[in-house]
Amino acid sequence: MGLVRYRRVGESAAEWGWMEGDVLHEVEGDPLAGFETVSRARGDYTLLAPTLPTKIVAVGRNYAAHAQELGNPLPERPLLFLKPPSAVIADGEEIFFPPVGEEFHYEAELAVVIGRVASRVSEEEAAGHILGYTCANDLTIRDLQRDDGQWARAKGFDGSCPLGREISPELPGDARVRGYLNGELVQDGEVSDMVFGVERLVSYISQAITLLPGDVVLTGTPAGVGELRPGDEFRVEVTGVSELANPVAGRR
């Protein structure tokens, strides 16, 4: 169960809803501040990405095994980078690669969606600023990441942040992040194994960058990253959170 954004067929405006299984309910109120379900939605609709963030703040090397597989030391403090709003695509949308770079990699991740303005909050306060959780794929052009010396193109290209279809309000204590390439399990990590936990990340980011309602924090990827090719499908699972699956179309 969780919050979704959708668009009715034949209309241009996006609406908020509450998904229960495969049943979509209309809601009243501001989903980022408080709402209630009203009735089952009628008519055909298309599910959209569950949030339109002003920014995506992502964290690198937050699983020890992933840092090791890329030959990188563990950071002493969270290693941050940004993705722009144009990076977001929805569950089921095709992944297109830009006409630059050669090594296109998947990275399954837990995504945190902000619900209240977070500016200079403590770790103890951070949970009160979180709306919920969804799945993400931090797509990366690995050769550009190595060659550019910074990660703007490698991590921020158009469509580089697929997000799960809904925002789940709770995250189980035993949650795992799993990635499947064409049905084969290639990534599997416990959220509890993150170097820096969710509340630490939200607090740390907010000391310098104000997080606004709808913004997304990507929390890092477990070991097992690898290359995507046209015709592949990559699926992300986070325990207790909706799945995310995207086909790879190739270059555009």
Write structural notes for this entry.
InterPro entries: Fumarylacetoacetase-like_C, Fumarylacetoacetase_C_sf, Rv2993c-like_N. The structure is a single chain. It is built from 5 helices and 20 strands. The model has no long low-confidence stretch (mean pLDDT 94). The protein has helices at residues 64-69, 123-126, 142-148, 152-156, 198-206, and strands spanning 2-8, 15-20, 23-30, 34-40, 45-48, 56-60, 79-83, 88-89, 95-97, 104-106, 108-114, 130-137, 140-141, 161-162, 176-181, 184-190, 216-218, 226-227, 233-238, 241-251. Strand 1 (2-8) and strand 2 form a beta hairpin. It folds into 2 domains: 2-48; 56-251, Fumarylacetoacetate hydrolase, domain 2 (Alpha-Beta Complex). The chain is globular and about 50 Å long. It is mainly beta. Helices cover 12% and strands 41% of the residues.
Regarding quaternary structure, what we see is single chain
For the record, give the distance between the C-alpha atoms at the N and C termini, rounded to a whole number.
34 Å
CATH superfamily of the largest domain: Fumarylacetoacetase-like, C-terminal domain
Tertiary shape: globular
- Strand tally is 20
Spell out the blueprint of helices and strands.
Blueprint: E1 2-8, E2 15-20, E3 23-30, E4 34-40, E5 45-48, E6 56-60, H1 64-69, E7 79-83, E8 88-89, E9 95-97, E10 104-106, E11 108-114, H2 123-126, E12 130-137, E13 140-141, H3 142-148, H4 152-156, E14 161-162, E15 176-181, E16 184-190, H5 198-206, E17 216-218, E18 226-227, E19 233-238, E20 241-251
Parallel strand pairs: 6-17, 8-14, 9-20
Antiparallel strand pairs: 1-2, 1-5, 2-3, 3-4, 6-7, 10-13, 10-18, 11-12, 11-17, 15-16, 15-19, 19-20
